[in-house]
Design a protein that fits this description.
Helix 4 crosses helix 15 (about 330-355) and helix 10 (about 220-235) crosses helix 15. The protein has helices at about 10-15, 20-30, 35, 75-85, 115-120, 125-135, 135-140, 170-185, 215-220, 220-235, 240-260, 265-275, 310-315, 315-325, 330-355, 355-370, 375-385, 395-410; strands at about 50-60, 60-70, 90-95, 100-110, 145-150, 155-165, 195-200, 205-215, 285-290, 295-300. By secondary structure, the chain is α+β, with helices and mostly antiparallel strands. Keywords: NAD, Oxidoreductase. Belongs to the HMG-CoA reductase family.
């Protein structure tokens, strides 16, 4: 019987594609049997460079933080931001919620709202029992369904929200399993039920971090005031806010990816939270403490992540990186990730307020250009240094300087 494409081995799939022998071999070299079992129609791995933020100080403890990202300047900026924050004790955390909860929804349209309200009130104990029986393992770990609430979204649309404590797991499978069972229990309203699905909103999953930087570390009070002005700008101009948040997620996403978590869910939740006031705003806030001569920054982020389960447990790379982080609890991991976001944001704002973002960015970008024109690993840094001294740079100039370096070496 002929196998379908998804049933074939990675090698069989590659053979079916129109590839040159060299391209087929290149894909084969980067295959991994563990990863082949994770995604559909697997053919090969796509690798991201991974570096570390060497000394992130969080509540007095130093962490070495793995970051997986292709953008040249991000890890350098995160280290710079953390260095500045470390002058005044590093980054600190503030608890703003009793527990991180994940939200699932039963979605109804054209339903009798009064009857649905009555059903939820009358059968509260049974609704709890259905959830507990659907996922007894999470109940044994102290989690499970915490609260059920009904929200009227319009004259026709209603969401019944299930707030669930998924403990150390991100919890998508836990929530969706409970919702499937609850959907069956809500049988009297089944004709009006559009579906049952996890929400990636994340506002029941908030983490707050803050830190202080002495004016002297920044280069003076004028730079601090400029950073605060830029922060104010990002509260009233979505063009500025979206770029500032992208910078925050440069750091956040790199750690989320390195730990096997879902960076798409984290970014979607973050951007939704940035719009909660009705306009899109920066997720961070910077102000001046004139008495202490310090810049003060804080960042609040929804972080729907886990430290166990799914790809986090399945991927050896993620397990290595969590070991590098000293195997943190999920709450500590959230705080580390938010801390990296704050450090990243500080470095970006400092660059804009000082020499400009492009100067530092291009110093790192020249490394990529060096590789682009054929530099060998030992030639990359010397070529990048030479390029950084030039007023204008392009591939032709990079190639010319590379030839000069090679002539000098020979």
């Amino acid at each position: 019987m002929t196998k379908k494409f998804y049933e074939k081995t990675p090698t069989e799939r590659l053979n079916e594609l129109s590839l040159t022998a060299k391209l087929r071999q290149d894909f084969t070299v980067d295959q991994n049997l563990v990863n082949a079992a994770i995604v559909e129609n697997y053919i090969s791995d796509f690798r991201e460079p991974e570096g570390v933020l060497r000394r992130l100080q969080l509540d007095g403890h130093f962490y070495t933080v793995p970051m997986a990202i292709e953008e040249p300047s991000v890890i350098a900026a995160a280290n710079n931001g953390a260095r500045m924050l470390n002058f005044n004790g590093g980054i600190f955390t503030e608890k703003i919620q009793p527990a991180a909860l994940t939200l699932g929804q039963l979605l109804f349209e054209d339903v009798n709202v009064a009857a649905l309200h009555k059903f939820i009130d009358q059968f509260a104990a049974e609704i709890q029992r259905v959830a507990d029986l659907a996922k007894p393992s999470i109940v044994k770990r102290g989690g499970g369904l915490v609260k059920v609430q009904l929200r009227e979204l319009s004259l026709k649309q209603v969401s019944v929200d299930f707030l669930i404590d998924t403990k150390e797991a991100m919890g998508a499978n836990i929530v969706n399993t409970i919702l499937a069972a609850e959907k069956e229990f809500f049988q009297p309203f089944i004709q009006h039920c559009l579906g049952a699905i996890l929400s990636n909103d994340g506002r029941n999953n908030l983490t707050k971090v803050f830190g202080r930087v002495p004016f002297a570390v920044l280069g003076g009070e004028a730079v601090a005031n400029k950073i605060v002005a830029l922060s104010r700008f990002s509260k009233v101009d979505s063009y500025r806010a979206v770029t500032e948040n992208k910078g925050i997620f440069n750091g956040v996403g790199a750690v989320v990816l390195a730990t096997g978590n879902d960076w798409r869910a984290v970014e979607a939740a973050g951007h939704a939270y940035a719009s909660q006031q009705g306009t899109y705003q920066s997720l961070s806030h910077w102000s001046i403490d004139a008495n202490q001569q310090q810049l003060v920054g804080e960042l609040v982020l929804p972080l729907p992540i886990g430290s166990i389960g799914g790809a986090i447990t399945a991927l050896p790379q993620a397990q290595r990186n969590l070991a590098l982080l000293e195997k943190p609890s999920v709450q500590t991991l959230r705080e580390i990730i938010a801390g990296v976001g704050l450090a990243q944001n500080l470095a970006a704002l400092k660059a804009i307020a000082g020499e400009g973002i492009q100067t530092g960015h291009m110093r790192m970008q020249y490394r990529a250009l060096a590789l682009q024109v054929g530099a060998q690993p030992h030639e990359v840094l010397p070529l990048a240094r030479r390029l950084s001294t030039q007023k204008t740079v392009d591939t032709q100039l990079a190639s010319q300087i590379l030839k000069e370096i090679r002539r000098h070496e020979s």
